[in-house]
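Suppose you are handed only two things: the residues of a chain and a line of SMILES describing thiamine diphosphate. What would the bound structure be? This form records exactly that question and the answer produced for it, so the two can be stored side by side and reused later without any lookup.

QUESTION INPUTS
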Amino acid sequence: MSQSESLPAKSSLPEISATELTALYRGMLLIRRVEELAAKAYTQRKILGFCHLYIGQESVAVGAAVSTKDDYWMAAYREHGHAMAKGVSPKAMMAELFGRATGCSKGQGGSMHIFDKAHKFMGGYGIVGGHVPLATGVAWAIKQRKEGRVAVVFFGDGATHQGAFFEALCLAQLYKLPVVFICENNFYAMGTPLHRQSAVTSLKFRADGVGMVSEQFEGFDVEVVRERVAAASDFARAGKGPVLLEIVTYRHRGHSMSDPAKYRPDGELDEKKKSDPLAITKARLTDDFGLVDADFEAITDDVEAEAQAAWTFAHDSPIPDPATLYDFTYAPTEA
Ligand SMILES: Cc1ncc(C[n+]2csc(CCOP(=O)(O)OP(=O)(O)O)c2C)c(N)n1
Ligand SMILES: [Mg+2]
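ANSWER OUTPUT
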């Protein structure tokens, strides 16, 4: 292929409607409220272990889900938003965070290991970059089985410096596998800013070394993500090969619940909050689709009720039976 090849300017998706954009807004708000409740539960020690919030980045997962609802997704450890965007219920997710038997990983995975086969959400993973080759493997299976699906994998800027990441890209391109690699560039790997991680800070260039099509864009507007991920998944699904998308975003909270994020330059967070995905979409719904305060109040009340119901469900669910501790470590062996 020629490295000048690029994605088509327009995807196969129809123009967005008021109903669809309202649903995307609701999806982003639900992720935010569920995570805000999770953050509170964490400080109350109802949630233990690591917990990385996605607040500020919701437009990426929600926009990406539009064209890939029936495809396989994998993400890193900041994956609560991806899981919910892919269809995992807030109840099953919150119960997992609480370590309860009703959680989507039976309470044995926790925040970093949300998994839901029914929704083709093939996991959150804690090893930085370690899950990227899994997407290449899933795409290999898709191709062998002629499923017509794509594998979509989300990872951070920090993951793009890992050997496993390069190997995954290299093989995916060699075999023209249907993968959409999504780098969520939020400019930090824990407390290390991007310019101190890599001499190359436009991460889309990582694709050039293997001859892969790539694109970089800002992902604060859910409509932009919806459109460009659709263009990438159209491309991969048509057998033209994998795509690397670098989606520029920003996390509003620290790396994890134990990080007060003191390393940010003064004023940076306030500046970035001006491009809060919720505010952008709210303004668009108001200005171009005529939604009024009462519409937003109704959405907020509805989301609040769903998020609170998830908290109550998690809180009231039983802890796993200790006797099941080793049940799900290995796949059952055949007799
Ligand atoms: C192989 C490996 N090295 C180091 C760590 C520790 N670690 C956890 S998260 C993280 C930063 C990753 O940043 P990035 O990929 O940008 O994702 P983000 O947290 O910004 O979503 C590091 C270094 C790890 N989990 N795995
Ligand atoms: Mg990062």
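WHAT STANDS OUT: The domain at 18-310 is CATH 3.40.50.970 (Rossmann fold). The longest strand covers residues 179-185.
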